[in-house]
Amino acid sequence: MIKKFTFGTPICTEAVVEKFETSDNKDFPFKSREEDGKFVLEFDMTDSDIVYGLGEAPRGINKRGWTYESFCSDDPFHTETKSALYAAHNFLMLSGSDNFGIFIDYPARIRWDIGYTAKNKTVITIDGTEFDFYYIKGDKPIEIVKEFRKSIGKSYIPPFWAFGYQQSRWSYPDAKTVDSVIDGYDKAGIPLDCVYLDIDYMDSYKDFTVDDKKFPDFAEYVSKKREQGIHLIPIIDAGVKKEDGYSVYEEGRDNGYFCKNEDGTDFEGGVWPGIVGFPDFLRKDVREWFGSKYKVLTDAGIDGFWNDMNEPAIFYSVKGLEKALDKAVSLKGENLDLSKFFNLKDTFLGLSNSPDDYSSIYHTVDGKQVCHDRVHNIYGANMTKAAGEYFAKEFGEEKILMFSRASYIGAHRSSGIWFGDNHSWWSHILLNLKMLPSANMCGFLYCGADLGGFNENATRDLVLRFLALGVFTPLMRNHAALGTRDQECYNFENSEDFRDIIEVRYRLIPYLYSTFRKASEENDMIFRPLSFDYPDDKIARECETQLMLGDECMICPVYEQNVGGRYVYLPEDMTFVKLSGTKVVTEKMTKGTHYIDVALNEVPLFIKNGRKIPLCKTAMRTSQLDTENLEYIIG
Ligand code: GLC
After folding, report:
1. What is the mean pLDDT of the chain?
2. Ligand 1 atom 7: the closest Cα is on which residue?
């Protein structure tokens, strides 16, 4: 049962697709107040209640004991003391003494103090007083999730090949380098379906261009790669380079499609190409225009994209940089003491993603000028919608791979997400795991983290353990930052261990794909916390290092260095399965805690008693998989 409450006249985000009668605000089920233009609501929790939700966010599956923010943030340090990542997923659910979910459909900042200030109180502060509020009542967490998911519409389903293994790096700048990556995988006998083109494929970082010195005859190159069974996936950034003669910029400028300053001139910020205009994706005509630009690449045979920097990330605004440079010049020759030096340093550090800059940007919503602060969290989602609407119109469903960095609930209907610039840290294996069920609750099924970690140097064992989790994530992509150690599997010693892991992925694709489709069609989750399935089992309720997968499995990646396995908790008798290349080893295990040995080339998995999962033969590409002839592992 869902009850909708409307406060004021909210900006329409299109997150919810089901129609609801609006309830009387007198019946609002929470204690609430308005304070300085903000709306504050709160609820009590008992010690054993669990609070789930917030999708892509820092920390645990149980969100208690911290304070979070809904504010799409370009922040490459995903440490546990952060309060926001790239997404704003405003769904929260309490399970225990009471069972309910809430969705706050509001595109600006929200603070969620979940037992941080007062242990047994959740206090939510909405930075405004105009929003839609959905209260979802159910007996069990999964019922609440399904009811909510039904209201926001069916989750995006990518093409089948998007379940293959994908290799990325910032950057493979030219055809020769891309060829060498494919060659490296082929020679090592490691399956591969996609290679990514990061920003350097473009001409001077200009969206919808290809540098023809690096990729002479791009269309022919794309088609040759497709003959090899490889999909090339270019990146598209939110900002459009300011350059006379660059048609995308000129069209945007001449038609008034870019976001504005308060005085109506174009807001100008700096990103990869230098100064850019930011398309006002909140406008339907701008979305149609920007969406149609993808045609240049789809005409060349491209059938997958990743949308980036769409929080939006702004390295500096032209105005902000000018001020900072003036300050620096005025200090030239001075003897800078502690406070003057750090003030100058902070001025430059504060240039990126500055709150003042965001406040100075204006959009046009329903013909009216609206400050960016009021709609910040739907900017990226609308960029993705621009692409998604175009793809659906031109190609129909399930044809184009699309995922985004920034997102808001609603974007799950046209795209997946990746979890942004993580690190090659062991702790990020678990962070990846914990975000999966939370993202699923909010409709994002096609998701995954940069396997091996994006920032800093990865070790061989970290990449292997990360991949062993990635075997199960719908998006299985290895991606690494500029300047870091090579992270392609064939670049590490004994690459056969990597082959063993990735072959397991290909063997599991029929199972993973059908589990994915079913979850999308039935508004279900692929990954669930153990507490969903075993609500009366204290250890299961507290477990944050294992997940239930589909109706059959439990997954439990190894997440520490220099260990030969891990402790795992079985909430019931199950079959332990170790998969490695073509090898399958099974062992019945009883309810309780066990230490399991897991070598670096093995993928651990548990199957519930009486359930079975299919395996196909492995192949070098998804297009070569024989999904008809299956063998089964029986639990
Ligand atoms: C951003 C993206 C990252 C990409 C880089 C260069 O940091 O999150 O994935 O590699 O930009 O485009």
Report:
1. 98
2. 421
